Each structure stands twice: as C-alpha cells, then as structure tokens.
Amino acid sequence: MKIETRVDETHRTVTCSLDGELDVHQVKGLKSTISETIHPGDWTYIIDLAKVGYLDSSGLGMLVYLRKEITRQGGRLQLLNVTESIRNVFSLTKLDEFFGLK
Questions:
Q1: pLDDT tens-place string over residues 48-100
Q2: Which residues are within 8 A (CB) of 85 and not within 5 positions of it... i.e. 6 or more apart?
Q3: Which of 7, 30, 41, 98 is most buried when burial is the number of CB atoms within 10 A of its CB?
Q4: Quick one: the chain helix, strand, coil %, rounded to 5?
Q5: Residue 42 has pLDDT above 90, yes or no
Q6: Model confidence over 15-27: pLDDT tens digits?
Q7: Cα torsion angle, 61, 64, 68, 73, sign
Q8: Distance of alpha carbon 69 from alpha carbon 75, whole angstroms
C-alpha cells in the first residue's frame, strides 16, 4: 500500500491518497501514519480511496477508528472517490451513513 499525505496548514486540511489494498496486512502501518497527522481543532481529513481495489473488515475498522479519533479532536473525516465495489462494502455493513456516503 502506498500512501501520499499532503498537509495544507492554510486551509487546515490533510489529504491522504491511498493506492493498493486496505486489508489486515496494511492496517497497522497505515493507521500509525495517518494518526501522526491528526491535529487538535477544526481540521478536515480527506482520505482518497480512488486507487483502493480491496477493503476488508480490518480496513473498515481502521477507518471507523480514524473517524472517531478525528471527531474527538474536533475535526472532520471525508472519504473521497469511493469506487462502487468499495461503496458496496460500506453499504453492506451499514457504515455508508456513518461516513456520510450517498
């Protein structure tokens, strides 16, 4: 899994673009990398899933953890470019509403 992170201090946004599979083998390192970017306050965190081809339950769990932690710190998490197959995983687990996916 490749991750590209951009921090925009001016607009208080952190964008993480993921490329690969979001599964049990990737979650620990990815969770640590993204967690290091979490700032207290009104920040927006964007996770771009355009190049994620597979998402398992551990990947879902990591995203739920990140959303809760970011919200606890006063920020927002947005998922961008969610493919149809990944969107189906969110829908089947009823997490589409939790993440605000329409």
A1: 999 999 999 999 999 999 999 999 999 999 999 999 999 999 999 999 999 99
A2: 53
A3: 30
A4: 35, 35, 35
A5: yes
A6: 999 999 999 988 9
A7: positive
A8: 9
Query: Which residues lie below 8 Å from residue 27, measured CB to CB, with a gap of 6+?
Result: 58, 59, 61, 62
Whether 88 maps to a domain, the answer reads yes
Q: How many structural domains does the chain have?
A: 1
What are the φ/ψ torsions at residue 50 (nearest 5 degrees)?
-55, -35
Residue with tokens 């952190």: 14
Q: Domain for residue 56, yes or no? A: yes
CATH of the domain at 64: 3.30.750.24
pLDDT of amino acid 2: 75
